[in-house]
Amino acid sequence: MLELRHVTKKFGNNTVLHDINLKVHNGEVVVIIGPSGSGKSTLIRHMNLLEQPTSGKVLFQDKIISGSISKKAQQRVHENIGMVFQHFDLFPHFTVRQNISYAPRVVKHLSKSQADRQSTELLKKMDLENKADAYPDQLSGGQQQRIAIIRSLAMNPKVMLFDEPTSALDPEMVEEVLKSMKKLAKSGMTMVVVTHEMGFAQEVGSRVVFVDRGHILEQGTPDEIFHHAKHERTKNFISKIL
Ligand code: ADP
Ligand code: MG
């Protein structure tokens, strides 16, 4: 589904990713962990054109999406690969329903009634149906983040990327967002998730990838990485997030 092939990324003289090779298969939930500043965000941002590799290639469904690609190819990436960030970036002057409907209407040319029907369905699934007419600032952080997830899902993506989606939330709101993400994972969505939420990784992670100083130091099942890590640096990191 997604592949980074020999990806190296430099910012000026600073090499942030060193020869990264990573494949994400259909239906997998790949969890990326690692210390702050190790390159996790830079890595995941290569998967939807937010960063370009200095060398190497990024592929989506076996087609190269890095380098100069056509507008049409870029649009294909934007339609098929959704992303949710740490800071829920909802449009503040739009209602929840308008937030969800905006891209499907503009990009996919859905009619208002089609878009309304779709947003109602998605809101129902996430138990947020009664918030359709609310504005973002009338919602809790957890609710806003769940709306941000729904907004991405409204494009019917093939893959969902998450970069520390719960790390800006108050502790009591983390669970509701993780619950939505688990539901999505169990529905078969292909996901790449930067998170230190071990419970999430253990319950739905197919694979955990440990990134350290721009290298993939090791990867394996959640059990292998959390309980039987091979490298001291991995063990040391895990002991801090346990
Ligand atoms: P993580 O998400 O693991 O905390 P990042 O991918 O955000 O790590 O950052 C990895 C390194 O790349 C850091 O040293 C950071 O300062 C640097 N970096 C990230 N983005 C940029 C940028 N746009 N320009 C320059 N340096 C950057
Ligand atoms: Mg980051």
Describe the fold and architecture.
With 242 residues, the chain is α/β, with parallel strands linked by helices. Helix content is 39%, strand content 25%. It has nine helices and ten strands. The strands form two sheets. The chain has a six-stranded mixed beta sheet with strand order 6-7-8-3-9-10. Strands 2-1-4-5 form a four-stranded antiparallel beta sheet, with no helix packed on it. α3 (96-108) runs parallel beside α5 and α5 (141-153) packs parallel to α6. The protein is globular. The mean pLDDT is 96. The site of adenosine-5'-diphosphate (ADP) has 10 residues, from α1.
How is the main sheet built? Answer: 6 strands, mixed
What molecules are bound to this protein? adenosine-5'-diphosphate, magnesium ion
Order of helices and strands: EEEHEEHEHHHEHEHEEHH
User: What assembly state would you assign to the polypeptide chains in this entry?
Assistant: single chain
Arrangement of strands in the largest sheet: 6-7-8-3-9-10
Helical element count?
9
Principal-axis shape: globular
β-sheet strand percentage: 15-25%
Provide the gyration radius in Å. Answer: 18 Å
The helix content, as a percent range, equals 25-40%
**Stretches with pLDDT under 50, minimum 5 residues:** none
Mean model confidence by pLDDT: 96
Tell me how many strands there are.
10
Distance between the termini: 31 Å
Essential attributes:
single chain; 242 residues; alpha/beta; six-stranded mixed sheet; four-stranded antiparallel sheet; 9 helices; globular
